[in-house]
Write the structure tokens for this entry.
Amino acid sequence: MTIDPFSPLLGQSQAIELLTQAVKQNRVAPAYLFVGIDGVGKTLAARCFVELLFSAQTRNIASLQSRLRQGNHPDLWWVQPTYQHEGKRLTAAEAAEKKLKRKAPPVIRLEQIREITEFLGRPPLEAPRNVVVLESAQTMAESAANALLKTLEEPGQATVILIAPSPESVLPTLVSRCQRIPFYRLDTQSLTQVLTQAGHEEILQHQTILSIAAGSPGSAIASYEQLQIIPETLLQDVTKVPSSYRQALELAKTIAQELDTEAQLWLVDYLQQSYWQQWHKAEIIHKLEKARKSLLCYAQPRLVWECTFIALLMHLS
């Protein structure tokens, strides 16, 4: 019986067709750009595509799937953005496990691109080609992107997959060397199916979370998990705009002390949806968007929230 590697991927029929036909017609591109919002299946599609590419050279599909899940296949190099901590690179998951307080988002570093170049410098050992996958390719600094560009010019017996939210988020010269594979927001039926199969039916009862997700099951799950981390009293206080300047300053202080940058950025999304449902005022959304940009520019978080809450208080009073 033939196993379809793409069977776990729902709601992305165009991407599945493009990738499947590339293999069937033996026209696999040297580089692909998987683009679409986070959480709609780009990373899963990359894993499925790798399995499809490698399955032609193996009879034991179960063993192949197990090795790919464990990340120990010799012809696959998977790259994630990292933090630099005490001389070591840590992925976001590793940083969270160590409970490190993160002030800036992780990035793909120049040394990681150099490791890719070294990896592609040898022929594949078992599969018909080497495969490199770069998650969150938009986090590459210009020096890293330029180094990768040189690799894409002569990839050898390999395929490189870049995963990013949009073509505009990646260096144009990189985009020009990749075949673009689009990924779309899921419709309500597909979103419901994915969340149910993943054991997250409870998320379907949280309209604010579903609004934040906007057709992205991955974002819905991540948002729901983040919701569980935020202290309940803080969430109750913050969803009711402060009634005085003193309360605004105290709330800003609490947020800055108790939430890391990632959680604060999520809170901006949550408040945009919550405040819109309460007041339907675009100006409030704009003020929160300004807060997001300030946080991303590493402005002092407490000051950002103080200015935001005072502005909201003045606007609604």
In short: The CA atoms of residues 227 and 267 lie 9 Å apart. The chain has a mean pLDDT of 93. The radius of gyration is 22 Å.
